[in-house]
Write a structure and sequence with these properties.
alpha+beta; 123 residues; five-stranded mixed sheet; Alpha-Beta Plaits; 5 strands
Amino acid sequence: MDLVDLAWTTRYPLTTDAEPEATMRFHDGTVTATAITDRARDVLIQHGFTPTKATREYTLPAELGESDALGAVVCAESHLYTLGASVRVGLGIPTLQDIPPAPSRRPATPATPSPDQAHRRSR
């Protein structure tokens, strides 16, 4: 799935710890969403998301093609943005924060030269 256009158009809040009204996520070929307000729920449903058994959780139909799923997310995200709703779209691409740090290694100590090597260098 080509997510470049969506990545460039996704709008992020400047700085806020508040939970967004709607969160849409791409994961393993599926698209899921969470709505914490009624207006976010209404917009998600309007753009093809269906409620799941979990409260305030939605998904796009599995038979929807990649292009149509991407279009539904872009339309829902734009619609929510025009209403002034906060939206987060997770593209399923790991970020630096998702990658664990490499284990620290001890610095390698240089081997001391053998007497033969030390003698050759002094000539």
